[in-house]
Amino acid sequence: xxxxxxxxxxxxxxxxxxxxxxxxxxxxxxxxxxxxxxxxxxxxxxxxxxxxxxxxxxxxxxxxxxxxxxxxxxxxxxxxxxxxxxx
Length: 87
Fold this sequence. Notes:
Elements: H1 5-32, H2 35-52, H3 60-85
Helix pairs in contact: 2-3
């Protein structure tokens, strides 16, 4: 099946609209979000990254080390978040 240039342009236009809406939503959310909420969002993304760390771009023998590294980073960010709460 061949994809036409018109179809690609239409898809791009739709993605541009979605991206613009997401940017506006993010701006509104960040304006009202506390630092703690923002950090929690960041940690959620870190957990997602940790879950995805088993990707195939790293040889299987190195994936365990990669996951350990991500888990250590999350722990460091959580410690920083705890410290910032008391600032």
